[in-house]
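Figure 6 in text form: structure in, sequence out.
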């Protein structure tokens, strides 16, 4: 079976690499010559643990190839996976231009009957449109079927998530498509859920939006915990023992970012509106997240009044640890506001600095060691819970900062440990530790957030 994968971003490249890892012959197509040459040498264009090894080994063993020559690749393909991006349009809807660009190339060049599998996250009904488009534009005697096969990998654990997925969802309209995809995924040995195409498309949005809802829910509970003296970490723990709730995605913080949750919540909300229905829970999820993103900035502003001329240590830039991706990272708009306020910023991130420099080049200083950022700082803002940050001894803040005022958006430290220190510590959904202020100790932070 000749498998071609269109697109070498997180979804496409990881799909291609993992399919070759279980023994399939795969060609990945991308328009960027430079990127293709690098991938052939085992250099992944994205930062993803384990991916370089997979690329190199499977390429060397002849199961995985990369090309810009899409005409040849699609010509005799039995199966084409579409894994290109579906970014957000200004109105919140999903932009399908890349998907249909690939469809155009497939239709023009394919010479065999083939199954086209849409892995990209697409609005409900898109697979029907893709099939109609391909059938209209391909040569008459070719039979093209389309199946939906959404991807559930998370960045930073993409390879493991794919090779050990919790489920594989297949949305098909024919027995033949189901059989082909069952054959492809047989070697993964994972549960397969077969539905029609529209249900498969909905499963992807409903899954992502439900996780986003869970996060926004916990963020609201956290904000309220601060007002009434409860501790959100304890609350989450207490909730998690109920198997109906589970212990995942209960972590309060400064909101979800990344390439999926923000875009997929907006896209589903837009789509429902377009159908004359208001998804109220998703609307609230989006609103809560938008507000939560600025929590640290608001708190710092309230604490200091003016931030003008203050030296701010920014620890963590990426939207989560384990990735160099900055899409929808809370650090970006917060840094903008800090700069507008006249603050001086020194930023640290173990892998995100190069990408951040593309957004803010000379306006802020970058350092490769978090301690360098803390030296002489008036306040610290923690945006990402990297191990390099979590493992920083609290004594270092005390020792190096001008005044050890910490705003921790990811609850990197235990409140009990912080209480031993001469620092002022504000986190999410927990009491503030005010040990810099001699007369008030361990007050509930009712005013700050
Ligand atoms: C997500 C889904 O997990 C994945 O299944 C889907 O295919 C793509 O979207 P990803 O965006 O890579 O993956 O990251 P994820 O680990 O889910 O985190 C998303 C955001 O939520 C991050 O900003 C993270 O910090 C935040 N988050 C996550 C929380 O704030 N609290 C949590 O408990 C979990």
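Output sequence:
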């Amino acid at each position: 079976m000749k498998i071609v994968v269109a697109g070498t971003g997180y979804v496409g490249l990881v799909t291609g690499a993992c399919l070759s890892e279980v023994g399939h012959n795969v060609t990945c197509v991308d328009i960027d010559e430079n990127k293709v040459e690098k991938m052939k040498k085992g250099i992944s264009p994205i930062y993803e643990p384990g991916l370089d090894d997979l690329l190199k080994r499977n390429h060397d063993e002849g199961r995985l190839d990369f090309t810009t020559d899409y005409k040849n690749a699609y010509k005799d393909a039995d199966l084409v996976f579409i894994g290109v991006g579906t970014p957000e349009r200004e109105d919140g809807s999903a932009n399908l231009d890349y998907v249909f660009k690939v469809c155009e190339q497939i239709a023009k060049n394919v010479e065999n009957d083939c199954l086209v599998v849409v892995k990209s996250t697409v609005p409900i009904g898109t697979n029907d449109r893709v099939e109609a488009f391909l059938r209209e534009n391909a040569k008459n005697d070719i039979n093209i079927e389309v199946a939906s096969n959404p991807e559930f990998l998370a960045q930073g654990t993409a390879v493991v998530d794919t090779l050990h997925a919790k489920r594989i969802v297949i949305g098909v309209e024919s027995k033949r498509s189901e059989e082909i995809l069952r054959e492809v995924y047989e070697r993964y040995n994972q549960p397969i859920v077969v539905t029609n195409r529209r249900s498969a498309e909905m499963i992807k949005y409903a899954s992502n939006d439900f996780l986003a809802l869970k996060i926004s829910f916990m963020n609201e509970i956290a904000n309220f915990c601060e007002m009434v003296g409860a501790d959100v970490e304890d609350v989450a723990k207490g909730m998690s023992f109920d198997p109906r709730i589970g212990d995942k995605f209960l972590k309060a913080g400064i909101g979800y970012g990344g390439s999926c949750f923000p875009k997929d919540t907006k896209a589903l909300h837009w789509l429902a509106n377009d159908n004359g229905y208001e998804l109220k829970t998703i609307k609230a999820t989006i609103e809560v997240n938008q507000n939560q993103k600025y929590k640290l900035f608001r708190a710092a502003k309230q604490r200091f009044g003016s931030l003008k001329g203050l030296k701010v240590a920014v620890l963590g830039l990426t939207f989560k640890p384990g990735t160099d991706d900055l899409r929808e990272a809370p650090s970006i708009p917060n840094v903008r506001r800090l700069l507008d306020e006249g603050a001086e910023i020194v930023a640290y991130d173990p892998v995100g600095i190069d990408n951040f420099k593309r957004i803010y080049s000379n306006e802020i200083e970058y350092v490769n060691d978090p301690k360098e950022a803390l030296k002489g700082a008036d306040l610290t803002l923690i945006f990402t819970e990297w191990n390099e940050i979590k493992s920083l001894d609290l004594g270092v803040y005390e020792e190096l900062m001008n005044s050890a005022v910490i705003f921790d958006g990811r609850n990197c430290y235990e409140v009990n440990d912080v209480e031993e220190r001469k620092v002022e510590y504000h986190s999410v959904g927990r009491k503030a530790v005010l040990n810099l202020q001699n007369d008030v100790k361990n007050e509930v932070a009712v005013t700050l957030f």
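Caption detail: DSSP finds 19 helices and 15 strands in the chain.
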